[in-house]
Amino acid sequence: MTLGWRAAMLLAASLIATPAWAGTIETRSFASPALGRDIAASIYVPDAPGPWPVVYLLHGYGGGERDWLKAGGARTTADAVFAEPSAPPMLLVMPGAGNSWYVDSERYGDWDTAIARDLVAAVDAAYPTRANRESRFAVGLSMGGYGALRLAVHHPDVFRGAAAFSPAIFADVDRVTVFPPFQIAFFAGAFGDPLDLDAFNRRNIFRPLEDLRTRTEGQPTDFYLMTGDHDGLGLWDGTLRFFRAARAAGHPVELRVHDGDHAWPLWRAELAPALRWIGGLLPKAR
User: Which of 70, 164, 230, 257 is packed most tightly, with the most Cβ within 10 A?
Assistant: First the structure.
């Protein structure tokens, strides 16, 4: 009787200590011919057999490949979401892109090409992925929100859609003084040094929306937008503009406005809903 009670207690303790789902984290480097150097990345590998859809999680300005793990709670969130029936297990790829703004530039290198071409190909070669457009998404915050949307609109043959949290996106600007000095410093380098408004405007992500459906031969590109109503950088304005522009151009788009600032508590809480949104768009595994 005593032995049975002890065995039951040990079993209960093991069930409590062992999570229902436990993906693993890998630290990898992938060669990038576009950059002429390796791309460092943190990888969340799901606790399930492949092939997996792939989500590219992009960090913000001043961040790196471990931001989504340390500040964003990506591992815990992914474990919880992928244990639900709402979303299948996904491979999460978190590259470190410095302050590149995810564009091709002289100062930082060709990061747009490096991710859309080199990193995607390397990840698909290294892991059992669903290596097709319909199963590949980008998610990012702030600078990474711009990067995620940029990947979706400039490489619609590679990415099915994007989720952007507090994205740093702007329509065309006619003078540098519309930005406070600290923002000008953020843009310099990726968009010319000093900041070149022509280069900045050429890389805005509103223009490619107009012919996006033509370039995808009618296939949808889906967008998920989230912003805080107290964003200290005022980035809700660009988010709302993009929402209206995407709807006007006939693209499926979701918008969430939450009580919050330009900060990790808001972004961390939004990752689970975004992964569920992606799960609802993925083709059913055969």
Answer: 164
pLDDT digits (tens, 9 = 90+) for 92-138: 999 999 999 999 999 999 999 999 999 999 999 999 999 999 999 99
130 lies in a domain? yes
Is 160 a domain residue? yes
Query: Computed from CA positions of residues 254, 258, 262, 265, in that sequence, does the dihedral angle turn out positive or negative?
Result: negative
Q: Distance (Å, rounded) from C-alpha 76 to C-alpha 13? A: 20
In a domain, 197, yes or no: no
What integer pLDDT is reported at residue 66 of this predicted model? 98
The C-alpha atoms of residue 141 and residue 178 are separated, in whole angstroms, by 22
CA torsion angle 73 270 136 26 (round to 10): 0
- pLDDT tens digits, one per residue of 207-239: 888 888 888 887 889 999 999 999 988 899 999
Q: What share of the chain is helix, strand, coil (3-state, %, to 5)?
A: 40, 20, 40
Neighbour tally for 60: CB within 10 Å: 24
**CA angle, corner 25, sides to 23 and 31, nearest 5?**
130
Q: For 28-47, what is the mean pLDDT?
A: 98
Number of separate domains in the chain = 1
CATH value at residue 235? 3.40.50.1820
Q: Hey, is 145 helix, strand or coil?
A: helix
User: Which residues form the domain of 143?
Assistant: 22-169+205-281
